[in-house]
């Protein structure tokens, strides 16, 4: 017959914050290990891919690490991925170019 395992925390319900794993101790006893929730990596706000260079942590752990570990040394670092930043810069440049062309055409028509 299998050995009984007692719950170590007060919550008996099988919720996401109450995950457990049965572990055998060196003394041969079976005990529950309460597991923490898995962390998800921060995502790019535009395309939704996980941001490279920023660790996947639980929200409270970001308060304990330094700012250099939370961001990337780039415009929009830690918020947008490099490809999206490149796209934004290119789009802004093309919009400005279009404005200049529009102004030149308007001045030539006069």
Automatic annotation (TrEMBL):
GO biological process: translation
Top-level taxon in the UniProt lineage: Eukaryota
Compositional bias (Basic residues): 1-11
Pfam families the UniProt entry points to: Ribosomal_L34e (PF01199)
GO molecular function: structural constituent of ribosome
Keywords linked to the UniProt accession: Ribonucleoprotein, Ribosomal protein
Chain intervals for the UniProt region annotation (Disordered): 1-20
Matches recorded under InterPro entries: Ribosomal_eL34 (IPR008195), Ribosomal_eL34_C_sf (IPR038562), Ribosomal_eL34_CS (IPR018065)
A cellular-component GO term for this protein: ribosome
PANTHER family: 60S RIBOSOMAL PROTEIN L34 (PTHR10759)
Family affiliation: Belongs to the eukaryotic ribosomal protein eL34 family.
UniProt name for this protein: 60s ribosomal protein l34-b
Organism: Cristinia sonorae
Taxonomic lineage from the root: Eukaryota, Fungi, Dikarya, Basidiomycota, Agaricomycotina
